[in-house]
């Protein structure tokens, strides 16, 4: 054993080999030195544990092989482009909305250069970053004022902190939502420093429940869009108009968290009704909050829109500063919002809306195209099947979108192995498993990704 230990090379000796030089060029001297040290440590421990039994001889070559692949794995890029073939259009784990080319260009421009982020170009004084989108949001929603923060969760937290801290926030028991990523409305209310006062029941909350809960400690009434569930059957909630009248009469504020903020009436495009921001404000809601990267189809952002005096108060709160939006997202948001104005057609220009409304014949044609490219490779078994896609992220929760998928099976692998191989590819392709097949839903795949998917499928085949 002592002999084996003694025969192990020194760190310094290993560092001077050509193998080390190659790795140092790739990963830097510090990482390679550390990896050699760690590897020798592990090897020594193994020799001691073997207590004299014969072990595979340790060669510099075998050491470097292991170190090389370990360093490569540790430094591999984990955030990278992926193909979303899940059929979930706004897929939070896959980065939600794809941006319109206009939004991408706007980001590029402010990323590569300095920008008038907080500089008022008319007088050279300090300006507000909200100013770049405020007028547009007001125009598109009818709001008096607006501001933007990092995401919708931050928008709600900021609103509640600025308007409700130390006081009561009244919410219906049917609307105490939990959305993904451990965002639970009761917890957010508590975090803001406000106290949650629950009213009504799970299925029914009446106006009189709000009425009798309001007292001098009440700061606001909070309504939330039940975006990822629905309560059906014997149900009722007061209308926005009723709640708004009550808020006015009692000197409280009506806030509604919309989650997915829709700026246009999607029912005109054959989709389910989702509350349109402008209609909600018109119904008398004082403030709304909504996401930038859900149905709006822009970057991650949270919009707060409504009464001027309230928005101005929120803008000054320290939390607003802590969760402020960055220049890249702001540029992308502005460019996306522009696409809602004439002469643009948002349904055509904004990828999320485009995918939602794309005629089924086009989706089917794309599926046929993939099928024929894969057939030409002739390696995986592929079939065309009818399926349903989804908006995702709590948007249009009850909407089935007709779709077509290419269903893959591999003669040599289980469906889980196939899914995993496609995830591990240079460009990961993410499908969904159903009935022992891997479905590649074509509603969320773009025209130019068809060839890419075929290449990836080709690349994962065993040699
Ligand atoms: C999605 C959602 C949020 C959170 O939005 P993010 O932009 O992800 O922070 C809040 N409320 C509701 C109702 C939602 O659906």
Overall morphology:
globular
Distance between the termini: 41 Å
Q: What's the architecture of the largest domain, going by CATH?
A: 3-Layer(aba) Sandwich
Write out the CATH superfamily name of the largest domain: Type I PLP-dependent aspartate aminotransferase-like (Major domain)
Number of strands: 15
Give the helix tally: 20
- Range of strand content: 15-25%
Helix content: 40-55%
Give the CATH level 1 class of the largest domain. Answer: Alpha Beta
Average predicted confidence as pLDDT = 93
Question: Widest sheet: strand order?
Answer: 2-10-9-8-7-3-6
Low-confidence stretches: none
Question: Could you say how many structural domains there are in total?
Answer: 3
Largest sheet: 7 strands, mixed
- Give the class from helix and strand content and strand pairing: alpha/beta
Q: What ligand species are in this complex? A: pyridoxal-5'-phosphate
């Amino acid at each position: 054993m002592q002999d084996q230990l003694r025969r192990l090379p020194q760190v310094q000796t290993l560092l001077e080999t050509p193998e080390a030089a190659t790795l140092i060029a790739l990963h830097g001297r510090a990482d390679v030195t550390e990896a050699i040290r760690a590897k020798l440590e592990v090897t020594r421990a193994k020799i001691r544990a073997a207590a004299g039994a014969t072990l595979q001889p340790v060669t510099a070559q075998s050491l470097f092989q292991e170190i090389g692949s370990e360093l490569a794995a540790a430094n591999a890029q984990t955030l990278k482009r992926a193909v979303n073939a899940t059929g979930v259009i706004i897929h939070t784990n896959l980065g939600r909305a794809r941006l319109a080319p206009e939004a991408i260009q706007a980001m590029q421009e402010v990323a590569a250069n300095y920008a008038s982020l907080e500089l008022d170009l008319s007088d050279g004084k300090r300006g507000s970053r909200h100013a770049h989108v405020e007028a547009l949001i007001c125009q598109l929603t009818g709001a008096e004022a607006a501001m933007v923060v990092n995401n919708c969760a931050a928008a709600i937290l900021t609103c509640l902190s600025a308007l409700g801290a130390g006081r009561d926030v009244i919410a219906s028991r049917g609307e105490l939502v939990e959305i993904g990523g451990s965002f639970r409305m009761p917890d957010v209310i508590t975090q803001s420093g406000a106290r949650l006062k629950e009213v009504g029941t799970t299925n029914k909350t009446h106006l009189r429940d709000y009425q009798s809960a309001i007292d001098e400690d009440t700061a606001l009434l909070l309504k939330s869009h039940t975006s990822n569930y629905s309560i059906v059957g014997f149900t009722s909630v007061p209308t926005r108009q009723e709640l708004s009248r009550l808020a006015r009469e009692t000197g409280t504020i009506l806030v509604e968290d919309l989650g997915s903020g829709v700026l246009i009436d999607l029912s005109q495009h054959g989709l389910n009704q989702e509350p349109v921001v402008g209609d909600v404000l018109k119904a008398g809601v004082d403030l709304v909050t909504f996401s930038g990267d859900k149905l709006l189809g822009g970057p991650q952002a949270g919009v707060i829109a409504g009464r001027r005096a309230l928005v101005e108060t929120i803008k000054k709160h320290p939390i607003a500063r802590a969760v402020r939006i960055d220049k890249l997202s702001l540029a992308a948001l502005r460019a996306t919002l522009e696409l809602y104005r004439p002469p643009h057609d948002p349904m055509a220009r904004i990828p999320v809306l485009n995918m939602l409304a794309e005629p089924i014949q086009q989706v089917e044609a794309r599926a046929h195209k993939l099928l024929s490219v894969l057939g030409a490779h002739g390696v995986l078994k592929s079939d065309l099947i009818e399926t349903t896609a989804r908006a995702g992220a709590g948007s249009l929760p009850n909407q089935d979108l007709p779709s077509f998928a290419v269903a893959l099976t591999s003669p040599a692998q289980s469906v889980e192995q196939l899914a995993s191989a496609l995830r591990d590819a240079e460009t990961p392709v993410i499908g969904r498993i159903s009935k022992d097949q891997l479905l590649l839903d074509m509603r969320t795949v773009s025209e130019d990704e068809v060839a890419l998917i075929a290449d990836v499928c080709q690349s994962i085949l065993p040699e």
